[in-house]
Amino acid sequence: MNFSITWIKKSIYPIFGMSSKDFESDISKKLYFFIVLALSISFTGLAIHYLIHEAYYLSLMQGAIVIASLLSWIIFQKTGSTNIAGTFLLLITTAASIINVLSMGGLNAPTLYLWPLVPLFATVSMTFSYAFFWTSVYVAIALVCYLASRWGYTFPSMMNSEILGSIKLFSIVLVHYLILVVINYVRKINKNYRTVIDKQKDDKTNLVRVLTHDIATPMTILKTSIRRLEKQMQTPSIDLERMNHSVNVISSIFEHVRELEAISSGKKEMILQKVNLVEIFDELKELHNTALESKKISYSIEYKNLGGTFQVMADRKSLCYQVLNNLISNAIKFTDSGGSIKILVESTFGVTKCSIMDTGIGIPNDLIINLFNTSVKTTRKGTSGETGTGFGMPIVKNYIEKFNGKIEVHSALKSENTQNHGTTITITLPNIAA
User: Closest Cα partner for 138 from 169, 181, 83, 97?
Assistant: First the structure.
């Protein structure tokens, strides 16, 4: 096999005006090249087969398909579009297929065995809409032949049964091996892509680990130095306050990055256990009392027992501080002074739903779509100028999924609905049956 590939690279690539380097930089070009090569060899074989059996016009037709295959490669090189090049090739092969069917017995034509190559070729080389169109064309031709025979039309057969049988066998063998080769090649490409993606993922993970580790020490030095300067200053310094705030923000970002990396890599071991939600929400109310009072936000919590318990399966620390604490903090951050936050906990036999509902400014739809995406910026300033890192919600989602739960977000913008606005975030977790 390696010898064949080497021979193709040395002998065939130059004929098509290509080199190994050209194909390495463009997988689609390489795939289309091998498709054209396979079609050219296959139909050359068919042309020779027809020629031996003195079916000259059929031999000429297969030769036309070979020429069309080579021309389609030239069109592909000029346009860079497999859709255009493939359409040109399929126009020629469709015309040839119709002639074959009309002269070799309609649905009994042995070349029908070659038709599965159409969706195979179209799917691996063209977009789905083009592949669907050309597949439908061949299905339509088959339906027309079927209906014509049902209505009494008899398709002529210009060859004897022995020749038709040999063509049928040739077609079956050809289709089987071409499908095998193409699928194997696609699998090879997929494997290569996965190897590249895995390497990029590893490189990215290692980079994150190095950055978060190496920056930790200088950040600690900065914090210590700022605290010393604050003690030495007789009056408060605005610059020092800004520096301290910036350092805290950077530290928060890196802490969140470490948290995400630990979750995604599986380094953070997650042991699910019984967690009492009533206790957690009482603890979080105490934690947020100062922020609630400073913004004069009313806070209420309601428990509805609908046949279950308020105990869920989760990691207590993560559920309390990484999930629910994050959601309540966001609700406070984006709720105006004088607004309200209501928490509704509904427990059924199987699951418990926790809904954090605020009367805040709401979340735009374009942000909701990317709310859990770490690669898209979703940070906004709060109603009192509060800042964030943008990593909070992805961390929340990662933990919820670790707890075998789900999260839903619904929001109405204050700018669009002055009477009924705010955000409701609902997390659903499996609970402990009563």
Answer: 97
> pLDDT tens digit string along 239-255?
777 777 777 767 766 66
The span from the CA of 195 to the CA of 206, in Å, is 16
One-letter amino acid of 355: S
Q: Which residues contact 230 (CB under 8 A, 6 or more apart)?
A: 237, 240, 244
pTM for this predicted structure:
0.49
> Which among 61, 122, 125, 131 has a CA at the least distance from the CA of 97?
61
Enter the tokens of residue 405.
């739960």
pLDDT in tens, 186-218: 777 777 777 777 776 666 666 666 666 667 677
**What is the CB neighbour count within 10 angstroms for residue 168?**
17
Domain positions in the chain are 2-159, 210-265, 273-430
Comparing CA positions, the residue from 263, 276, 347 lying closest to residue 316 is 276
Closest CA to 139 of 155, 115, 123: 115
Q: Which CATH architecture has domain 273-430?
A: 2-Layer Sandwich (3.30)
